[in-house]
Specification:
The protein has 14 helices and 5 strands. By secondary structure, it is mainly alpha-helical. It has 2 domains: 216 residues, HUPs (Rossmann fold, 3-Layer(aba) Sandwich); 82 residues, Tyrosyl-Transfer RNA Synthetase (Orthogonal Bundle), CATH 1.10.240.10.
Length: 333
C-alpha cells in the first residue's frame, strides 16, 4: 500500500534552533516512518527576501541538512532535496500565476503580515508577493496530501487548494490532490527574551548546535514573571517563557503540573524552574550536537544525501509537471 506523501522543509537562511525542533523536526521524525516524506531545502524561496545576500542562502543549505541528519532524519526514509535544482517547481509556479490574481495574493493574511513585519510597504519583491503560487507549485509537484505548517501559514495551504481546484476545473478532472494542513500542537515558541518570534539573527534563539555553555546562558537569560520579586511571592505562568518551553519539552507532564501549582502559590524561585529546563535542553541537544559535529567532518556524505534526495524529487516533480501540462492541453514537442 502506498504511503501518503508529505512535504515539509525550511528556508535556507541559517541553522535551525529548538523552535524548529519543537514545531516541526520532532514530528518529522515520526512522519518518516508512516509517510513518503520530502524535506525541501527552500533556497529559491529564501532568495525572495535575501537576494542581497546569496552567500547566506548558499551556505545555509549544508547547515540545515546537517541539522536534519543530526536530529535523526533518515535519508533512506526521507528525501532531502534542493529546491533550486528542481526546475519543475519553477515551471509550475509560472503556470500557476495565471490562475491567481495580484489582489488575491495581496489579501493572503500570511503575506500581508510578513510584508508588514519586513516593512516593505509598496517595495515588495515580486518573488515575495508571488510566494503563495510558488508554494502551491512545491506542494502539488510532489502531489503531497499532507503539509505540516504553523498556524500562521495555514492561509497558504488554503490558497494552494484554491489553485488546485482551478487547475482541476480547467483540466476537467482531478489532476492534482488538495493538501491538508497539519498544525503542530506545540505552536511557535517565543524567543528567550519573550518576543513572539525566535530567530538566530535576533539573538533570542537556542541553536540545535548550541554548546552546553550557550544553553546555560540562554536559559539563565530567559524572561519569566517580572512581578516575582521574592521567592515566597506567587508567580504567574502566563507569558512565562520558561514554562512555555517546559510545556514543549518536558516529558513529565504530571511533574510539570505540580511545578506550575507550586510556582503559582509561591515558594518556588525562577532558579529552580530554569535549572529543570536547562537539564532537559542539555539532554536533548547534546547528542544532536555530537552527531552534527561528526557529520560536518564528512561534507561529501552530506552532499551525496542531498543529491540522492534531489534526484528522487526531480523524478517525482517532472512527472507531475507532465501530467499538468498534458491535462491542460498545452502544446508539447
Amino acid at each position: 500500500m502506498n504511503k501518503p506523501t508529505i512535504l515539509t522543509g525550511d528556508r535556507t537562511t541559517g541553522p535551525l534552533h529548538i523552535g524548529h525542533y519543537a514545531g516541526s523536526l520532532a514530528n518529522r521524525l515520526q512522519y518518516q516512518e508512516t509517510h513518503e516524506q520530502f524535506l525541501l531545502l527552500a533556497d529559491s524561496q529564501a532568495l525572495t527576501d535575501n537576494a542581497h545576500n546569496p552567500e547566506k542562502v548558499r551556505n545555509s543549505v549544508i547547515e540545515i541538512a546537517l541539522d536534519y541528519l543530526a536530529a535523526g532524519i533518515d535519508p533512506s526514509l526521507s528525501s532531502i532535496c534542493l529546491q533550486s535544482h528542481l526546475p519543475a517547481l519553477t515551471e509550475l509556479s509560472m503556470l500557476y500565476l495565471n490562475f491567481v490574481t495580484v489582489a488575491r495574493l495581496e489579501r493572503n493574511p500570511t503575506i500581508k503580515e510578513e510584508i508588514r513585519v519586513r516593512g516593505f510597504g509598496r517595495d515588495i519583491p515580486a518573488g515575495f508577493l508571488c510566494y503563495p503560487a510558488a508554494q502551491a507549485a512545491d506542494i502539488t509537484a510532489f502531489k503531497a496530501t499532507v503539509v505540516p505548517v504553523g498556524e500562521d501559514q495555514a492561509p497558504l495551504i488554503e490558497q494552494t487548494n484554491e489553485i488546485v481546484r482551478r487547475i482541476n476545473a480547467t483540466a476537467g478532472g482531478r489532476i492534482l490532490p488538495e493538501a491538508q494542513a497539519i498544525i503542530p500542537k506545540a505552536g511557535r515558541l517565543p524567543g528567550i527574551d519573550g518576543k513572539a518570534k525566535m530567530s538566530k539573527s535576533g539573538g533570542n534563539a537556542i541553536a540545535l548546535s548550541a554548546s552546553s555553555d550557550e544553553i546555560r546562558r540562554a536559559v539563565r537569560a530567559m524572561f519569566t514573571d517580572p512581578n516575582l520579586l521574592r521567592v515566597e511571592d506567587p508567580g504567574s505562568i502566563e507569558g512565562n517563557v520558561v514554562f512555555t518551553y517546559l510545556d514543549a519539552f518536558d516529558q513529565d507532564q504530571d511533574g510539570l503540573a505540580e511545578l506550575k501549582a507550586h510556582y503559582q502559590r509561591g515558594g518556588l524561585g525562577d532558579g529552580k524552574i530554569k535549572a529543570r529546563l536547562e537539564a532537559i535542553l542539555q539532554e536533548l541537544i547534546a547528542p544532536i550536537r555530537t552527531r552534527r559535529a561528526q557529520l560536518a567532518e564528512d561534507r561529501g556524505y552530506v552532499l551525496d544525501v542531498i543529491r540522492a534526495g534531489t534526484d528522487r524529487a526531480r523524478e517525482r516533480t517532472e512527472a507531475t509537471k507532465r501530467d499538468v501540462v498534458s491535462a491542460l492541453g498545452l502544446f508539447q514537442l
